[in-house]
Specification:
single chain, 291 residues, two-stranded parallel sheet, 17% strand, globular
Amino acid sequence: MQKLLVTGASGFLGWNLCQLAKQQWDVYGTYFSKNVEIPGVTTIKADVRDFEQIKHLFQEIKPAGVIHTAAQSSPNYCQLHPDECYSLNVTAAWNIAGLCADYSIPCVFTSTDQVFNGFNAPYRETDSVCPISHYGEQKVKAEQGMLERYPKTAACRMPLMFGIAPAGATSFIQPFIQILRAGKELSLFTDQFRTPASGKTAASGLLLALEKVEGILHLGGKDRVSRYEFGRLMAEVFELPQDKLKACLQEDVPMPAPRPTDVSLNSEKAFALGYQPLSLREELAALRGCL
């Protein structure tokens, strides 16, 4: 099998990607602060912010493709520490695109639906970017810089993601489940809309992009829902008590990073290429008993 380099293998998306990719690839996954062991995957401690380290990795592994998922993906953290996050979210991405160009190999980057301001959803790949947070701004800069350095890069804008996670990582769904199981109150926004997808589904989209895409691609799920609607459906599918599930507005929960109201993605381009998310109910049902 050909070698695939996945950065950020200890994170939620990177871990899910490695699980899926190892069926077709000889996978090498990097981690930095959290050691991770994935059966069937060679994991390597590396700082993707260090150009010489990454350059050496390329020379040693000689990958046939790269999927770059490593990032500081907390909008609130990025809002409070923009300079610290820039080297990981922007500079490292540019360097990886440059190395992929040097080796003439496929390069996939995980961007975000947060590159939009939320006023004109659902968003297509051709719509103008207009981020309202430092995190969104950094992902825009990463996209643009990578495509300038290597136009064959596939910049995949990822939706809100959920599902099984490695030790030390999580998706937003795990705390929701724990709170409801404990009989505690869970307040969710009725005025924030996304197109969620499971980590496994999102990973399948990235592998598709590696084979077929150059440029921007949206990898949203099938259904547009609010956080509150998601919580209701999750509780129903997982048979969790719903009496403590409360509706609230974004303005009720002050946070460092502003959140766009509706960044639901139009993913018809990916669907036409063979990206096949299940319905949100089916995605959740597939996880029942695993979380």
